[in-house]
Amino acid sequence: MSRQKAPLENLKILRDELKQRNWAVEAFLFQYKKQEFIVLVKVYSDEEKKESKYAIVKLEFIKRGDRKESFCTYADLYKIYIPNMKLFREFFGIEYADNLGDIIQQFTQYFSTFIPNKLTGNKAALLMNAITEYLNKTDSDSSKGTYCFGLKRNGIKKDGTAKQRSSENNQKAALLKPQLFKLIKDNTISFCFSEDPKRESTDDEILQRFAQRNSSMKLTL
To answer: Which InterPro entries match (predicted)?
Structure first.
């Protein structure tokens, strides 16, 4: 007898694929009540405290056409948590009703039909922009921007081990500088970005500058 699939199991599939790649976020489109939303599926970091021990991902719903309006929450395999019902109803245009528990269940079930069962490539520009904006806000290894100009070797942690490239920096480099990203196998090296297009450099220029600054260190390719 086959196991019945949990309503939000595809979120776990996305999370597991993101973690396998050491990425931080995925995006897809969701339509509800004639309004289209960009959904960001975010991975919890190892150091991050979860709102619930059962939570598998964080979710952010962003109104298409009004990127300043968003609704943030989290989900487990079976339901989306709604910490504030009033904000939830106002954001999604849901009229008040006594059976709000049923409404959340119906919303969760409907939402589940939009969740991809794998990470997707060749995304539409608005999804790529949403991902890049999120990575820009959360990448602790680099400044904001999409123009790659360099590499840096990360420092040493208190326990004496080398700091690893963050999942946000890793994904940003994979999306914006794919050929260079494939060359840099050493996860103690992070990618540097700028908002200034004049600072963007070729892969060869970046590698040459890094080699000159780190002539005594081995660059793992």
So the answer is: DUF6037
Give me the residue spans of the domains in the chain. Answer: 9-112, 139-213
Q: Tokens 């699939």 appear where?
A: 5
Sign of the torsion angle spanned by Cα atoms 44, 37, 17, 182: negative
Q: Are 97 and 37 in contact (CB under 8 A)?
A: no
What is d(CA 176, CA 23) in angstroms, rounded to the nearest whole number?
Answer: 13
What digits encode the pLDDT tens for the residues 169-217? 999 999 999 999 999 999 999 999 999 999 999 999 999 999 988 765 5
pTM of the model: 0.89
Q: Which of 102, 74, 71 is nearest to 88 (CA)?
A: 71
Residue whose C-alpha is closest to residue 24's, from 180, 135, 136: 135
Asked if 148 and 177 count as a contact pair (C-beta separation under 8 A), the reply is yes
Q: At what angle do helices 167-176 and 125-138 cross, to 10 degrees?
A: 140
